[in-house]
Specification:
- It is a single chain.
- It is globular, with a radius of gyration of 22 Å.
- The protein has 20 helices and nine strands.
- By secondary structure, the protein is α+β, with helices and mostly antiparallel strands.
- 53% of the residues are buried.
């Protein structure tokens, strides 16, 4: 099994990797199908199902679908150009993707939120259709957004085709147990094995510059979030808090009035900064998802800014280690909130972050595995119940607490020798089982929990 660091950490836009980036990626794939088809198309339609329908408006799924069908993709997203395309669609009820004729698309009639029909493959399902001049559907495909910006067609899902296939890699571990065994036999760290896998597929320059860019985008997102304020979109009137908290922390530091526990506020504010940017539709990196995008950058920024002896040269080791753990979680359970609740998003992010931090602070592979297990274990059962379907409450603060847990987990693991009772693999399987047993209303549908017990207007 091989999942590239560049698949786990994808540069995109908020507020959701599964509900915003996924539909945009699916639409881009559908346009490619249309371009290679002999039919002469005149229009397109889309229907959203399951969680994509229930929380689609709050997650900007409608906007993402329209922009995807207009030819936009997450990594190359340009805000001004997107706004122009949306305005053009409102005025003309057409879309103009490159390589295709102008396509009829009226969001009021051609974008359907189907709350009654759940597609069988995954909670995040959508059907894209292309029509001829008579309005008859001549091409269609079902796509599933399976979390973290990963998208599969109905056929790919049925055949078990998944990201991570391809030529063999030197260290093809499918589980944490296999990872530890390979590390012991090879004498390599988790990051070194992950790097060897990456280098078997691409050049050293590509790996180094790509990872550097991932961190640059993450770090820039923190910095933007620490300087922007105002009200987040969506109607809940949630005020950005990161800037004010950050300024207060800086002032306390200048006055030498910092209490020991205040380090938790520093960790939290870095995470909140990212998730406020995500909620506002800004550029973020899936880590492993948008809804959990603040945990890992906050943990890494904590390491760089607050840990004595921290060096920038360890960023690559941190991200490679985290990606290795994230890949194990994804292939053996889920990183999708719509599939397994927030334990699959923030829980996975916390485990990845704890592993990365433990590694760069000198942890052995056994200690790294222990750190990941501690962090994930204490997110088990966490539901995904966003108020009004917006990635704001409880999501923003939840990322802060996920980062704090990651730091605590890494610290606890470093205090031991890696020996512990619950293996990471057992914890991941428990998360999978818990997600399967969890009521659908607690899995990113906004039909239970805080979403129904807190007034959302």
């Amino acid at each position: 099994m091989f999942l590239s660091v560049f698949e786990m950490f994808k540069i995109g836009i908020g507020p959701s990797s599964s509900h915003t980036m996924g539909p945009m990626v699916a639409a881009a794939r559908f346009l490619e199908m249309m371009r290679s088809s002999p039919f002469r198309f005149a229009g397109v339609r889309a229907s959203l199902h399951g969680s994509l329908a229930f929380t689609g408006v709050g997650h900007a799924t409608d906007r993402a679908t329209i922009l995807g069908l207009a030819g936009f993709e997450p990594e190359a997203y340009e805000h001004d150009a997107a706004e122009t395309a949306l305005a053009h669609n409102r005025d003309t009820h057409t879309l103009s993707p490159v390589g295709l004729p102008a396509l009829k698309f009226d969001p009021k009639t051609d974008l359907i939120f189907d709350y009654e029909t759940t597609l069988p493959g995954h909670a995040n399902g959508m059907r894209l259709m292309a029509t001829d001049k008579q309005g008859d559907v001549v091409l269609q495909e079902v796509f599933y957004s399976v979390g973290g910006g990963f998208v599969l067609t109905e056929g790919e899902l049925a055949k078990g085709i998944e990201t991570g296939t391809g030529p063999a890699v030197p260290y093809a571990f499918h589980s944490a147990a296999e990872m530890l065994k390979m590390a012991k036999l090879s004498g390599k760290s988790i990051a070194q094995m992950k790097e060897a896998n990456e280098l078997s597929r691409q050049s050293t320059e590509r790996v180094c510059t790509g990872i550097s860019r991932i961190w640059d985008v993450m770090n820039d997102c923190i910095d933007r979030g620490l300087t922007n304020d105002g009200i987040l979109p969506g109607g809940l009137k949630v005020r950005r808090r990161a800037k004010a908290i950050y300024e207060a922390l800086l002032n306390e530091r200048r006055l030498n009035q910092t209490a020991p526990h205040t380090i938790n506020d520093w960790i939290s504010v870095y995470a909140m900064a990212v998730n406020e940017e995500n909620a506002a539709g800004g550029q973020v990196v899936t880590a492993p998802t948008n809804g959990a995008a603040g945990v890992l950058p906050a943990t890494l920024r904590y390491y760089l800014d607050h840990v004595p002896g921290a060096t920038q040269s360890q960023v690559q080791n941190f991200l490679l280690t985290a990606a290795a753990i994230g890949g194990i979680v994804k292939f053996n359970a889920s990183i999708s909130g719509a599939e397994a609740g927030c334990q699959a998003e923030v829980g996975s992010a916390s485990a990845m972050s704890a592993a990365g931090l433990c590694a760069v602070m000198g942890g052995t592979p056994e200690q790294v595995e222990n750190a990941a297990e501690i962090a994930l274990e204490h997110h088990l059962g966490m539901t995904c119940d966003p108020i009004r379907g917006l990635v704001q409450v409880p999501c923003i603060e939840r990322n802060g607490l996920g980062a704090i847990k990651a730091v605590s987990a890494a610290s606890l693991a470093l205090r031991g020798d890696g020996t512990h009772l619950v293996p990471l693999d057992a914890c991941i399987e428990t998360m999978r089982q818990t997600g399967a047993d969890m009521s659908e209303k607690y899995k990113e549908t906004a039909l239970g929990g805080l979403a129904v017990n807190v007034p959302n207007c």
